[in-house]
Amino acid sequence: MPRQSQNQSPAPSRKKALLSVAILLALTGVLILLFKDHWAEISAALAQLSLGQVALVLALGITYPLLEGVASWLIVRSRLPGFTLRHGIDNAWMGTFGNVICLGAGAVPMQTYYLHRCGLGLGPGVGLMTLQYVFHKAAVLVYATVLLLWNRQWFTAHATGVLSYLPPPTRWWPGSSWGWCSSAPPRWCRALPAGLWACCPRRRNGRPAGRAGRPSWTP
Prior knowledge:
Elements: H1 2-8, H2 10-34, H3 39-47, H4 51-76, H5 85-101, H6 107-118, H7 122-150, H8 152-158, H9 167-182, H10 187-197
Helix pairs in contact: 4-5, 4-7, 5-6, 6-7, 7-9
């Protein structure tokens, strides 16, 4: 009987893999149909790039989630000692997946859910992911400010009328982030995540918190 269950277990995995490939092919077909009248322009633009430039762009693209994974690993392991670098990179990819499927608003919920599967509680998970979000935006603000000041003459010459819109959000964002992190939310706001969390699937076999192994995604 166990042998039969082992023989039947790969079937759902094959079905999921085939479904994923079918969805990817469907999306690729949609993109081809959308840009079918512009392939000449796209091909001409890509022909101007060298192999080294393409490799540099791909390297920069993969560097971002890897660095975010390192940041997640460093932050979360303070509360979850069994949280490894591999977990941090997986958590970063979960944030990327959440942003894609939720139009930029799903990173923290998806990452918090992943941390819950790893054994971290709801409150610490949301707090640590919010802290990582604030650190990320603060770093972007600092780097953008330095680059704008460094290339101010070029930016002024090529972005007429834009400089008047930069000071207000630059002043507003640090204050709002600090107020968001330091203020206590109302009771209904604190109860809302717990209510939504009750609808999520539970960990398999009551896995104890703090386990170093990778989380199971089977409800």
